[in-house]
Specification:
Layout: E1 8-15, E2 20-27, E3 32-36, H1 42-51, E4 55-60, H2 66-69, H3 72-78, E5 83-85, H4 90-94, H5 96-103, E6 116-117, E7 123-126, E8 129-135, E9 144-148, E10 153-157, E11 160-161, E12 164-165, H6 175-186, E13 193-196, E14 202-203, H7 204-210
Parallel strand pairs: 3-4, 4-5, 5-6, 10-13
Antiparallel strand pairs: 1-2, 2-3, 7-8, 8-9, 9-10, 11-12, 13-14
Protein name: Hydrolase
Keywords: Hydrolase, Metal-binding, Zinc
Cofactor: Zn(2+)
């Protein structure tokens, strides 16, 4: 990702049969990094971070669907980085084996315990970078986004995609909650760059203009 001020770096991997986008964001002054959505290829994530000189400080989960958590058993073996997740997704997290079976995915090893609960408007940090937790339910009961206001950047999980939104026909999904979450996203600046859980990056301005779901559904 373009970073003219050289204060941060973003690493992106696309993993698994559902082509899930997972990320790490690092503060280049402190070399501290967080991993956002441990959906797979955990060893590659750790190796890539080490190669670039970044220290994994935490794992932040946007939600607990299987394609976003499948790498947690492996990463927990090699790292003691604490895991953050919203408590409303705990039932989904506990049902990970059933989720894996439903989507034909493999979940090797037991899931680690969640270390810290996320809540709306919580302030998080990685090095000098600051993020706000946005509670954005609808795709799942505990979906969140991580909003870096100073960077004009949102890690949105599966709430909004380029031209679409996350599914609302899954267990725990809610059409009404998704509508409310999309309304909340409309309050953010048009210039906000969105890194979603699937597909290409976009901006909220682009989605406000062209995403039909932002116009109502």
């Amino acid at each position: 990702m373009s970073n003219p001020t050289n204060t941060f770096e973003i690493l992106t991997w696309v993993v698994g049969p559902l082509q899930t986008s997972i990320y790490a964001i690092a503060c280049t002054r402190t070399n501290k990094a967080v991993h956002i959505d441990c959906g797979g290829q955990a060893q590659k994530v750790l190796n890539d971070l080490k190669t670039q000189g970044f220290e994994l400080e935490a794992i932040w989960q946007t939600h607990a669907h299987i394609d976003h958590i499948a790498g947690l058993p492996e990463i927990a073996v090699h790292s003691d980085a604490p895991i953050y997740m919203h408590p409303a997704d705990q039932p989904l997290y506990q049902a990970a084996p059933q989720q894996a079976q439903r989507f034909g995915l493999n979940l090797s090893g037991g899931l680690p315990e969640i270390d810290h609960e996320l809540h709306d408007n919580q302030q998080l940090s990685v090095g000098d970078l600051r993020a706000q937790v946005l509670f954005l339910p609808g795709h799942s009961p505990g979906s969140v986004g991580f909003y870096f206001e100073e960077l004009d950047l949102l890690f949105g999980g599966d709430v909004i995609f380029a031209g679409s939104i996350g599914r609302v026909d899954l267990p725990g999904s809610s059409v009404d909650q998704m509508r409310a979450s999309l309304e909340r996203l409309k309050s953010l600046p048009d210039t906000t760059r969105v890194l979603p859980g699937h597909g290409p990056a976009t901006t909220l301005g682009q989605e406000k203009r062209f995403n039909p779901f932002m116009q109502g559904f």
